[in-house]
Structure formats: structure tokens, C-alpha cells
Amino acid sequence: MKYIFAVIMLFGSLCLSAQTGKKLHKKAIVVDTHGDILSDQIKSGIDIGIRQKSGNFDLERAKEGGLDVQVFSVWSDYTGGFALANRQIDSLDALISRHPDKIAKVRTASELKFTVKQGKMAAMFGVEGGHMIENKIENLEALAKRGMMYMTLTWNNSTPWSSSAYEETFKKDSLKQIGLNDLGKQIIKRMNELGVIVDLSHVGETTFYDAIKVSKKPVMASHSSAFVFNAHQRNLKDEQIKAIAKTGGVVFVNFYTGFLDSTYSGKQKQYADRHKAELSALTVNYNSRSRASEEINSKYRQELEDMRAPLSLLIDHIDHMVKLVGAEHVGLGADYDGAESYPKGLDDVSKYPLITEALLQRGYSAKDVRKILGGNFVRLLLKAKS
Q1: Neighbours of 120 (CB within 10 A)
Q2: Which has the closest alpha carbon to 98: 53, 40, 59, 124?
Q3: Reduced to 3 states, what is the DSSP secondary structure of residue 291?
Q4: pLDDT tens profile 20-43
Q5: pTM
Q6: Which among 203, 151, 152 has a CA at the least distance from the CA of 178?
Q7: Domains, the chain
Q8: What is the pLDDT of residue 283?
Q9: Does the structure show a pLDDT above 50 at 13?
């Protein structure tokens, strides 16, 4: 009888928690600081204003997930530059023109709040990779004029004025420039003047600390996780997390399984080894490796599912940072449509309520949950524009 009573009490507690979570999530301003869908939108011509069967983002699923603010990533690989950045911004503007009842571009915290109150998504963009300004401060100024909210100083590739985490880790001996040179320092100073936030995701440690010294305003990491759980060059060490918080900045935690889970790269290799022969045969048959990979991944979908990190591990990363620097300095930067694997359950932007519920189950107060979901981003935006 006591056992049955305990089960009933537990079930009732979980139901109450779920109801509290839904109510809190609906009232909170929910922000994702990094989504990579724009580059896919250009390549495929899809309209992410309507529901899509693939990918992680569209405006319909975002509405279902209570996502109020999306910072779209303007990104290119090693070859892209200023023209491609503008083309991606054009694609965002076109999306807004097609769906003015669903989404609006904003630049300030007051515009953001007004748009959210109207029931629309507040759209912003950040440029992921300093190479896209092509070493020209006038290009930085032009992107800021179009509404650039942050600029990630590097992507995986270094620039002539800053070094990336990837190249500081794997190509340090061949780098001509490690950290920031004079041009890099000028760029950061100009970013401060323009109200463009300095984003330290992807940058090498030398660049990281150089930028911290130069910036007079709070900095951010738009999509980075905790090194203590996975010693990946893209993750932030505890001292780096503390350094960002000391500026008044925020670390927005990345959802990618490969950054969250230290065992993932080994599982990927095992998966590739198991299906290597079949992949080779299909590649010859289709004369297309990408098509062959799609078929393999479809056929062995359950194996890929089993490799995904548990949601609890994402919460562990958030929890570690909160315990380290406080709930005022942690947020969400999913990196949706920028990776192949995310935690179980977090299939797309409709699933954000799961994070709210998980944080409440960890004992987080409603006040701190609201900060993590988006309150910290709004505060950071206010400081950047002041």
C-alpha cells in the first residue's frame, strides 16, 4: 500500500512539474543564439516559413517549441566572403518579406520585446567567421549597418589577424599569426563602437585571451560547450568560462553530440568501419558518395539514434557552467542545422520545452530558468548597444 501511495505521489509530482514547465516556458523569452539554416536555404531553395520534413528549423516548428528569438548564423567555409555574407542576409530578408505575420528583423532589446509581444519571431543574425569581412573594417561596418548582432572572430580557419581553435590546436607550427595582431585589435575596438558583440566560439586560446583584454564590452560564446566533459578544442575550459563571465558576458551552450559526449567520435569511427564496404559499393553503384551515405544512414537509422547523447548530458554542461559562474552567464546556442547529431529528444526547434522541464527537474528556480532560456541574452544585447 505504501508503495502504491509513493508511486501516486511521484506521478502527481511529475504531472505538476510538467504543467509548471509548460506555463513557465510559454511566458519566458526563449532565445537560440546560433542556427545554421540560412546556408541550407540558399542551396536548396526551401521556404523555412512553412513546415519542412527535414532539417531542424522552420517557423512552424519554432512556434510549437516556443522559440521567440533566433539568431541566424551567416556562415561560409574557407572560400566564402563578404558577398556570400550579404547573400545570406538577403535570404533572411526575403524570408521575412514572405512571412511578415510570423517573423520580423530586430536590432535592439526593445524591438525584440515588442516583436515577441506581437506573437512573431524576432530575427537577428550573427556572422560566423571573421574571414567574411575580408580583412576590411569597412566591410565590418557594412554588415553592422545591415543588423549584424555578433561576429565570431574565426571559424575553423584562422584569418590574417586572428587564430582559430582548430588551427591553434592542429596547425600551430604553420600559423603566421597566433592570437590578435594590430588589425585584429582594431576590429574588436570597432565592433565595440558599433555595438557588435565579440563572439569567442571557434577561436584559439591565444586569440580568446587577447580579445578579452581588448574588448571594453561584454563578450559571448554563441555556441560552445564545456571542456571538462569533453576535451575538444571547440569546448571552453573552466578558466575561459570564468573569463567570459567576468566581462559580463554569456556562454550559450552548444547541443551537438560531438561536443557534449567524449565517446561520440569513437562511436562514429566504429559506425564508419562497420559499413565501409557497403558504402564503397553503393558509391560506385550511384556514382555519388553523398547519395550512398544517405542510403546507409537511412538503413542504419537506429544505430545513429543510439549514438546520440542523452538530454541529461546537455543539462550537465549547463549545470556545470551555472555552478561555475552563476545562472546569469549561461544560455542556449543549439547549432541546429549545423551538425548531424543532437541529444535524444531534441530533434528540432519544437523540442525546447524539454530543456525547461529538465532544468526544473534539476531543481532550478523559475527565475534562473528564465535567465538561461533568454533573459541573459536580452541583458547582453542591452549592454552591447549602450
Answers
A1: 20
A2: 59
A3: helix
A4: 899 999 999 999 999 999 988 888
A5: 0.94
A6: 203
A7: 2-261+311-385 (3.20.20.140), 264-308 (no CATH)
A8: 95
A9: no
